[in-house]
Amino acid sequence: MIRVLSAALCVAILGACAHGTAGTRSTISAAEDTPLDFTGEVYPSRYQAVAAAPVLISGATVLVGDGTRLEAADVLLENGRIAAVGHGLAVPADATHVDGRGKWVTPGIIDVHSHLGVYPSPGTQSHSDGNEMTSPVTAQVWAEHSVWPQDPGFAAALAGGVTTLQILPGSANLVGGRGVTLKNVPAVDVQGMKFPDAPYGLKMACGENPKRVYGQRGGPATRMGNVAGYRAAFIEAQEYARRRGGKEPGKRDLKLDTLAGALSGEVLVHIHCYRADEIAVMMDLAKEFEFEIAAFHHGVEAYKLADRLAAEGTCAALWADWWGFKMEAFDGIQENVAIVDRPANSCAIVHSDSAEGIQRLNQESAKVIANARRAGIEIAPERAIRWLTENAARSLGVLEQTGTLEAGKMADVVLWNGNPFSVYALAEQVWIDGALMHDRADPARQPVSDFRLGQDSVQGGVR
Question: Is there a contact between 181 and 198 (Cβ–Cβ < 8 Å)?
Fold first, then answer.
């Protein structure tokens, strides 16, 4: 249960691991025009937006999230949606007015690579639920079945402007399981956080991690063994899909449901992959089995393939400057995101993979801007914000619902005290579906979980 200090509202530090939109390809069907459904209606979202009166944020610098910047502009939130953005808006009489003069407004930040809830704080072994290290391919496990909604990291991320996040399994396995996209709201169970109608993700991992975990446990022990493992798994999934589409479908298999869903486009593929040569191999693997890759995650050598990634419409979710902590991360450069961002149709994303980093993704992006400037590349704030909003939403298959401040989309909005890419930037207020979920100036609008309240009470002498 979640308690909060307002009537209106109520450590993922393990290194891990991923453009496409949901359902863009379906080559597997029971009949010519009848695609099979490998995701089903089980464990549906029970998310309910908090009811809220209309809100007008006026006179702010607005980064729409699609590359557009408006000065002294207004943003109107109504019925949980963006009603309008611009100047001289018609405002309902019951609207709450927020003075945005001297401040900046952006869409809510989206982190496409988080382990909050599956590696929660405190980081004890009993809380370590992100890696099912029992087989190289564990596509049958779902991250949402490990998410602990009381993780204090969710509230800390909200204070940093994060309104949506994808929770992924870890990167020990070739195929780690399904990820889940959440709205960053307090809830009793994960289904109360689950982003409505967001497609599932499939977490895969290249390189050193599967080798290290399984090299002495029957394999794979090499990179060629990794690729053989992926191929065998997808061949099995193809055969399974054909059986399911036939007259005698046979026994249902949870692992193959997920893999077949990836082949059909119902489940979006996110791949933890560092080296350029391995990224290229995985793109060729996708061609062999005719599936799309939503995003490569981490990709410290993605800059070497920036043109190919853009040409194939594949996103790259990257750190600002992490590098060198293992051999496959050795050839990273600080201009990585900026170079991936340069080609037409590029889809660069800044992600966290960290319970700490998720609290300051705006500042991680600011580091990219500074490093690019030193290399002679100027990146305007209105472009950089796309790394955290539009591009991120695109990779998760939810761009029609969130990621930009366009009329009709979810009113996921952050009001900053200034330029969000300043070292002094703070998220003053955060709305999710038009409801004020965090207010830096009001402790009653700062969600606190039962776990955190209990710890604070014990430390304060109340037992």
Answer: yes
Q: In one letter, which amino acid is 353?
A: D
Determine how many CB atoms are found less than 10 A away from the CB of residue 440: 15
Strand ranges, E, within 209-258 = none
**What backbone torsions phi and psi does residue 349 show, to the nearest 5 degrees?**
-135, 145
Cβ–Cβ < 8 Å for 163, 184: yes
Does the 29-51+108-412 domain belong in CATH 3.40.50.10490? no
Bond prior to 220 in cis (omega within 30° of 0): yes
Terminal-to-terminal C-alpha distance of the chain: 19
Could you tell me whether strands 175-183 and 29-31 are parallel, antiparallel, or unpaired per DSSP bridges?
A: unpaired
Domain ranges in the chain are 29-51+108-412
Contacts of 122 (CB under 8 A, 6+ apart): 11
Measure the CA–CA gap between 457 and 463, rounded to whole angstroms.
7
The dihedral formed by the CA atoms of 31, 33, 36 and 42, expressed in degrees to the nearest 10 = -130
Selection from 180, 184, 160 nearest residue 169 by Cα: 180
Summarize pLDDT for 194-224 with one digit per residue, the tens.
999 999 999 999 999 999 999 999 999 999 9
Name every residue whose Cβ is closer than 8 Å to that of residue 25 and which is 6 or more positions away in sequence: 264, 265, 290, 291, 292
Question: Any idea which residue has 């490569």 for tokens?
Answer: 296
Cis? peptide before 122, omega within 30° of 0: yes
Q: What is the pLDDT of residues 181-196, one digit of tens each?
A: 999 999 999 999 999 9
